[in-house]
Amino acid sequence: MAKRPSAAKSVGSEIKETSGAGGELHQVTADPSRWLTTNQGLPVADDQNSLKAGARGPTLLEDFHFREKITHFDHERIPERVVHARGYGAHGFFQAYAGNEDLTKAAFLCDSQAKTPLFCRFSTVAGSEGSVDTPRDVRGFAVKFYTSQGNYDLVGNNIPVFFIQDAIKFPDLIHAVKPEPDRAFPQAASAHDTFWDFVSLTPESTHMLLWAMSDRALPRSFRMMQGFGVHTFRLINAKGKATLVKFHWRPKLGAFSLIWDEAVAIAGADPDFHRRDLWDAIQAGDFPEWELSVQAFDEKQAAKFDFDVLDPTKLIPEEIIPLRPLGKMVLNRMPDNFFAETEQVAFCPANIVPGIDFSEDPLLQGRLFSYLDTQLSRLGSANFQEIPINAAKCPWQNLQRDGHMRMRVDPSRTSYEPNSLDMTAPREAGADGFQTFAAPTEGTKLRIRPESFADHYTQAHLFYKSMTEPEQRHIAAAFAFELGKCREVKIRTRMLGHLQHVDAQLAETVAAKLGMPGQADKITPAVPTNLKVKPSPALSQYRDPPLTIAGKKIGLLVTDGSDAKLIDALVKKAKSEQANVQIVAPAVGGFVDSEGVKRPADHFLAGAPSALFDAVVLAPAADGVPDLLKLAASVDWLRMAFAHLKIIGHTSDAAPLFEAAHVDPHADDGLVAIKNAKVADFIAAAKRHRIWEREPNVR
Ligand code: HDD
């Protein structure tokens, strides 16, 4: 073992400021030339054995090192987030495009030369921290911008509307979707009685339910997910003019989703599918990007819409108010420590900067209270904003003092204002500080919902109507699945009653799938559905998808003797399209290719079902096929790829696998024969992502 320096030199370790587009965090670096110490800096002589009275005697209370180590361990956990507990984040930066000044004076949106550091956390909503990545659920999309004017948090979701209109119902919604309190299941699932009981008694949730039952709730990757600020906000320019806006994040790679069966298979094969995907991409230097846009409109336009822009269960079709790009976000660095950064990051919609302001949306208004409050119990102290991931990166100073775990040492004699003893004490900024937009407001105190929030079905109909046929099929299947898990018949019949107001054909399909035709409750809506509402094609993910395999994974099934030329050609071509090939061999030790070269495998077959890949290629050597046929995993590999509508490349040697899996290698143009290592046709086909026409035959 290497000789370490003397104890005198070994005290403590250095605090180093790390830099990067993600900004600076206090990072303690382990120094291999120094000893292991206690928290007091005392070098530890023996970390293997506790101090005992005799070799076989009891441990002594005197063992301060043992006590310190165990005490710290005993307190390593903090309460998980009450919602969005399972999440994964990354550092990055935001860069504005030029020319946003007419909308806002926010410095980070106006300076197109500046790269504003940020931290972004994606999450599922319902599941615990240890649940899987791919349940059917809404995804959180929260961004903390460390701007020169203070931290700005845009705390959104991957769905542009919400279940409820008023924050006072949030605890009820979450209690309904979380595991039922007497039995503590189901985990990370909305498919149970209490959720559907609540939402079926809350008609305002109908529009969001359509989104939650759509493929949006099964994202393929965080990198391929849209984000939305949901509420209407205000942008304020230097002249004090306010513009109403809705925020949108659009991924450069395009928005893609999983298929339900695939998501279920992935949950078993790789519960960390989305985390791993983000980690792998960023570590490989393949930095995901999103464009931030707004739909900008004024009060006059808002007054003409047939819905209220303060109602968070409504969206504004892009065909009415198009998206205006403001800038881009790039994620380029993973946290060094998950707990210190991703777990301790505390978002809050009330973290705002000059140039941005709230609206009177009653859901947003409630959120402005809840987030700060929840951090107090989650992070345990009013000083949580001093934790490096939460601390502003611009200077900050005020007269707040003391409290549990105060890190900052304020040297002044006074901590009040006005004072005449310390002329250097912080003073108000007046016109240079944040000034709330003077929105006119008046009225009587009332506990009431505005009449303008009363139409609960028209936009649900609009959404369904705007979907392609496969998307509509998936929505119907998801409703049938979820309601099928409800034991209470009255919940199913009530929900079927709501669906009749969304779309007659949808209601009929779901009722048929449940084996409950004609059993819908009669529900009289406050406002009848406007069936003539114009569809919004922009809401569909599949109407006009980008033809690309950028950011995607191709699974390549090989055996000993597989064609080296084909493997090299596929890897090269995929790389030129920014895709990644992962080699799946019968054993993880690897395989020997046709030229006798031993190559490593990324996965072993039984551990990597085809559900983990976007497209697959079966390229076994003829000699390897008999052994492959003995493995159920290889037949399943092909059968599942086919059932998940994937593009499947295959060499002629793979023919017996097709026979065993009962898949016709000429079934459709998603099955591509690869001859003489020519992979271009396969790659071209893989850009289609899935063959939707296959679906009615396989499901
Ligand atoms: Fe919330 C967390 C997004 C409504 C109360 N919310 C949380 C997170 C996201 C959202 C992305 C996770 C942040 C992170 O990664 O740490 N929430 C939304 C959106 C909503 C919404 C888009 C509606 C448009 N939330 C909402 C309401 C309330 C809350 C109406 C309460 C009145 N949300 C919370 C919370 C959480 C939270 C309890 C839990 C952990 C946290 O805040 O930090 O305060």
From TrEMBL:
Its EC number is 1.11.1.6. Residues 35-51 have a biased composition (Polar residues). GO terms for molecular function: catalase activity; heme binding; metal ion binding. Heme binds at R81, R121, F170, R367, Y371, R378. Its cofactor is heme. One of its GO terms (biological process) is response to oxidative stress. CDD domains: GATase1_catalase. PROSITE patterns: CATALASE_1, CATALASE_2, CATALASE_3. It catalyses: 2 H2O2 = O2 + 2 H2O. GO terms for cellular component: cytosol. The active site is at H84, N157. Residues 37-425 form the Catalase core domain. Residues 1-51 are annotated as: Disordered. Decomposes hydrogen peroxide into water and oxygen; serves to protect cells from the toxic effects of hydrogen peroxide. Belongs to the catalase family. HPII subfamily. This is Catalase.
